[in-house]
């Protein structure tokens, strides 16, 4: 697992946002609620979910960023442990990318992150 998707302990988590995980396109699978504990430019870490997401599984994740923007990236599970599920963004719609970049740009400091 790359450092960009390292799952961290709860003591190092940033503010959380709620999320919904949607699996099984065109089936009767209802969305599963989750908590996004870290939202990066290339992925997200999910915790507190009952979704059965195996390594390599794909799912749509609907979430509201702390800035208020709603995004819906397609993710792939890259790892998990007792703290959460690490996912990389496989597809992000252009408007969602703008919202995600705006969220990270608003958090940037003059020295970077």
Q: Quick one: how many beta strands?
A: 7
Q: Write out the strand line-up for the largest beta sheet, numbering strands in chain order.
A: 1-2-3-7-6-4
Give the CATH H-level superfamily.
Answer: predicted glycosyltransferase like domains
Portion of residues in helices? 10-25%
Number of domains: 1
Helical segment tally? 1
Structural class: mainly beta
Tell the overall outline: globular
Rounded Rg: 14 Å
Distance between the termini: 22 Å
Major sheet attributes: 6 strands, antiparallel, barrel
Low-confidence stretches: 1-13
SSE arrangement, N to C: EEEEEEEH
The top-level CATH class is Mainly Beta
CATH topology: Thrombin, subunit H
Mean pLDDT: 82
Give structural notes.
By secondary structure, the chain is mainly beta. The protein has a single domain (3-107), classed as Beta Barrel (Thrombin, subunit H), CATH 2.40.10. It has one helix at residues 94-107; strands at residues 17-22, 32-39, 43-47, 58-64, 70-71, 74-81, 84-91. Strands 1-2-3-7-6-4 form a 6-stranded antiparallel β-barrel. A hairpin with a 2-residue loop joins β6 (74-81) and β7 (84-91). The longest helix is centred in the C-terminal third of the chain and has 14 residues, at 94-107. The radius of gyration is 14 Å and the shape is globular. The two termini are 22 Å apart. Residues 1-13 have low confidence and may be disordered.
């Amino acid at each position: 697992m790359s450092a960009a998707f390292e799952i961290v302990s709860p003591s190092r988590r940033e503010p959380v946002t709620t999320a919904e995980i949607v699996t099984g396109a065109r089936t009767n699978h209802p969305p599963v609620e989750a908590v996004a504990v870290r939202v990066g430019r290339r992925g997200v870490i999910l915790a507190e979910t009952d979704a059965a997401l195996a390594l390599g599984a794909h799912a749509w994740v609907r979430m509201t960023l702390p800035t208020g923007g709603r995004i819906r990236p397609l993710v792939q599970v890259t790892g998990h442990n007792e703290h959460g599920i690490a996912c990389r963004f496989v597809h992000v719609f252009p408007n969602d990318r703008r919202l995600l970049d705006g969220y990270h740009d608003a958090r940037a400091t003059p020295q970077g992150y």
